[in-house]
From TrEMBL, chain A:
Residue ranges with Polar residues bias: 80-91
Biological source species: Agromyces agglutinans
Protein name in UniProt: Uncharacterized protein
Superkingdom of this protein's organism: Bacteria
Transmembrane is among the record's keywords: yes
Transmembrane segments: 126-146, 158-179, 223-242, 248-270, 301-323, 329-351
Record keywords, A-Z: Membrane, Transmembrane, Transmembrane helix
Keyword Plastid: no
Region (Disordered): 80-106
InterPro entries named in the record: Perm_prefix_1 (IPR047928)
UniProtKB/TrEMBL annotation, chain B:
Domain Transcription regulator PadR N-terminal stretches: 15-88
Protein name, per record: PadR family transcriptional regulator
Organism (species): Agromyces agglutinans
Stored Pfam families: PadR (PF03551)
InterPro entries the UniProt entry points to: ArsR-like_HTH, Metal_resp_DNA-bind_regulator, Tscrpt_reg_PadR_N, WH-like_DNA-bd_sf, WH_DNA-bd_sf
Amino acid sequence: MNVITAYLETMFSAYPQTPRMLEAKAELHAMMEDAYTGYLATGLSENEAVGRVITEFGNLDEVAPQLGISADIAPRTSASTPVSSAMSGPTATPVAGPAKSPVPAPVTHDEAERYAEARRRTEPRLAAAVAMFVVSPAPLLALVTLSTGGTIGLGQDHAVLIGLACLLVVVVAAVLMLVRRDHELARFRRLTAGEFTRVPGVDRWADELAAELAPKRATALQVAIGLWILAASPVLAMSLLAEPAVTSSWIGVAVAGTLIMVATGLVVFISANWAQSVAETLTKTDSNAYAGYAGNERRSIVGVIAAFYWPLVVAIFLAWSFLGSAWGISWIIWPIAGVLFGALASGLSAVERYRAAQ
Amino acid sequence: MISADAIRGYVDLMVLSLLRERPSYAYELAQQIHAVTGTEYTIKQTTLYTAVKRLEGASLVTSYAGASASGKPRTYYQITANGLEHLEQKVAEWRDTKSVVDRFIEGVEA
């Protein structure tokens, strides 16, 4: 009998423990028990009886709509199933009982696979765009300090102009990349917005996908955090080791190096984060999604921080530089922002890991 | 051996016709069906359970808690007036279906 109980537990484990489910399990259990006792009475051995009972169990998935099980997790009218479409008259009414408030359609396995594939394909584009936002002020910084120090024959105004033009071009290119990615992911809007009903099979699939790629993601995160912390080193090395005259004109280049390291870390991390992000999208249906591409990263704190943090840093840098005419000193924002970002990211991912371990 | 697909639409008819005799519980229904069909068709437990729940949802049968001779709790199902009426319709529908299909297979060697 224990084998039968264990079998039934396994079959039902994929479904939520609702009252209707438990009722179904109890009644099927009673049926199987009766059948088992019946087979023993006809002279079958215990093993043979268990085998017969399990063979005659049938398929829970196939009949879930009528069991009222899928009405709990994925309501659909029973008219869409072969069982009742073969019937007519009052029996075609769904068993689910009184209609509940409309529940979004369940996510299908196929849909989930297509979404994961699209994310895998487009994630490098997201990574590149975020990185471009971060490096966008690099030419401006390098040119301004180089021209101030007289290393290149370019007036400061021209340097600012060229640097700003580069910044704008890079930002526009990054925005266009994000828009294009958003367009490609638009058909999965209901998934990213959480407007779907979870399905146990898809949940398990998504978790397995994330688990499979988790070691890769962990390595990527370590590399990225390392880069973010080391990002301060070009600036530190330049300030401490070089001659003061050299430092004042090349410090912008060092800051650009810092930004490139931060951006590289973001590329490494975001590219490796897609499976985790897909799993989070598919296993969470509460619709607290952020707008735009940040929505896809909504569970990845580092991703959210990156999306808001760096544009903010750019804004502060430009405001300070222009309003305070502080081009000579305002670069200091970047190494500070870089180190702060590294610290924030490692701290937050530690919190994330701690929560996950709970 | 009859495929589950072929007979699926008529499981309800089988259950209703058995319940017309007297109230019964799921396992007993399965046994009664087996007694009639023999080796030609074995009903899966999930299929039968599904059928009675569907009929109950459509108010064609009602259920009540009962107990076996040994005191084991059991859910009994009882046909309703609607159920009897529906059974008549389904029987008439089956006769029509059978006669229509028969006209097509006349002369086909099986």
